[in-house]
Amino acid sequence: MTLDRVLDEIAREFIDYLKVAHVKLDHSPNLGLWYGIRCIPTMLCFVDGEERVGIFGTTNKEVILSQLKLAINSPQVHEPGLAWFNKD
User: Fold this and answer.
1) 57 φ, ψ to 5°?
2) Can you tell me the distance from the alpha carbon of 81 to that of 66, in angstroms, rounded to the nearest whole number?
3) pLDDT of residue 34
4) I need a labelling partner for 34 at 20 to 30 A (CA). Which of 26, 51, 66, 84 fits?
């Protein structure tokens, strides 16, 4: 299953909890620069308007969901494969 399909499925299943947006960086290169995106695909999770976690590279639905739950429920937990953002 492609990553776009996985994200679409997650968006449908969690429509009341998540907003999923796709950005094509070739159409919005400044956005990639703004967030320091260096690899594609990159998924950024925002909680209350703040970046909480980045998920880098292609992965599966279960991994994405587990990392999103960690980002939302426990911002102090650090898991392999996650990049945590602290903007103080």
Assistant:
1) 90, 170
2) 12
3) 92
4) 66
